[in-house]
Amino acid sequence: MDIGIRIIAAVERLFDTNGFVATGMDRLTQASDVSSRTLYKHFGSKTGLMTAVLSARDARFLRRLDVRGVVALFDALEDWMRVEGTRGCLFLRTAGETGGRDAGITAVIYAHKKALHRRLGEIVEVEVGRTDEDLAEQILFLFEGATAEAIYRGPEVVSTARTAAEALIRDARPSA
Amino acid sequence: MDIGIRIIAAVERLFDTNGFVATGMDRLTQASDVSSRTLYKHFGSKTGLMTAVLSARDARFLRRLDVRGVVALFDALEDWMRVEGTRGCLFLRTAGETGGRDAGITAVIYAHKKALHRRLGEIVEVEVGRTDEDLAEQILFLFEGATAEAIYRGPEVVSTARTAAEALIRDARPSA
DNA sequence: AGACACTTAAAACCATCGTTTTACATGCGT
DNA sequence: ACGCATGTAAAACGATGGTTTTAAGTGTCT
After folding, report:
1. Residues of chain A positioned with their CB less than 8 A from the CB of B46
2. How far is CA B28 from the centre of its chain?
3. CB B99 to CB A161 under 8 A?
């Protein structure tokens, strides 16, 4: 599956920077240095390619969020942005472009968001010493909000979100 | 400009539900019940049409946010979602689809986000009795975060964001 | 050597893209 | 009745869309 990985890497870049619909197959084959025949043999269709890209991105993103504490969490988010750019969440953008009309894509998106939610719940639990679903949701809002705002204001906005998250955690700690 | 308004209303709906790139001119002319000639005479191009749609949406959205207090603010957001659906911010989606390659579209998006930021700043000022830029930013995160999360979880998530916003306001009040 | 799996380039497929053009029908002020 | 702006329908424009097919070139295993 070496060739598959190479294809996904090249294709992910184009989908991310140009959008799913706006990127034609010719550019995908050219960038991945592979014939369209091979591409279709491996992924079946353009949407099949997109789901493969999203699956790979899901794994890569969550690996980056394998940290302890909300400070490290938002630092990791900012790191991601500085490496990958601030074009917003690729999953939500893809959902918008396909309009939920493709079942495979929709499923990958839901799975990713559920995994992200769980990851944030774990981080919150370590921070405050107990599960706190409401707090985890609030951190999730800050996380998604920072991702959205960074689109037009850059990665710097993440530190504001991190500060807000720290305050929320502090208030929720059982001490005091 | 009666016909222009009718065109924008029909076109906005299609762009919003199907995406900018994925929606062809034939569908736009058909839905707005207008010839392509008229459409091009009024808006010049497809991207010109998109900028007109975004301008109209900017005005309509901000008119809905002409409220007092963060509770009313998030209530207004939830109302908007129940009427218009939860497909995320059309401005950010359009930014993602065009990749910042169109200057006109980019300008409208920036103007809208700046206006939204100011609106939230005013609401915060009324709530706490003074300007508080950091607090306004945090409310903005919650606002954008709720918009993003509602895409895959529905309008109900807004009440969680509203609760979080209320807590932030309460902590920032000058009293005791 | 021969079979097999896998790749390639290139053309063909039909559909649709955004845009412009041609030719014709209105309504309105004067 | 005239000119003029404004509308229509429909075809044409060249380009590109996603997908499949054809024909030929690899290397590897037995």
Report:
1. none
2. 21
3. no
Contact of A112 with A54, CB cutoff 8 Å: yes
Question: Is the CB of residue A168 less than 8 Å from the CB of residue A135?
Answer: yes
Ramachandran region, residue A99 (left: φ > 0; alpha: ψ -120 to 50; beta: rest): left
What is residue A22's DSSP assignment? T
> Would you list the DSSP string of B46-109?
HHHHHHHHHHHHHHHHHHHT--SSHHHHHHHHHHHHHHH-SS--HHHHHHHHHTT--HHHHHHH
Maximum pairwise Cα distance, chain A:
65
Q: How far apart are CA B125 and CA B131, in angstroms?
A: 5
With CA atoms as reference, report the closest residue to B157 among A9, A22, A140: A140
Residue nearest to nucleotide C18 (CA to C1'): B25
* Segment B1-27, tens digit of pLDDT: 588 889 999 999 999 999 999 999 999
Give residue-wise pLDDT tens across range B92-138. 999 999 988 999 999 999 999 999 999 999 999 999 999 999 999 99
DSSP A67: -
**B positions 53-72 inside 8 Å of A (CB):** none
Give the list of residues 6+ apart from residue A163 with CB closer than 8 angstroms, or none. Answer: B134
What Å distances lie between residue A128 and A71, A133, A168, A171, CA to CA?
13, 12, 10, 10
Comparing CA positions, the residue from A84, A172, A80 lying closest to residue A135 is A172
Hey, what amino acid is at B86? T
Phi then psi for residue A130, to 5 deg, are: -160, 165
- Alpha-carbon distances of B84 from A3, A10, B3, rounded to whole Å: 43, 36, 22
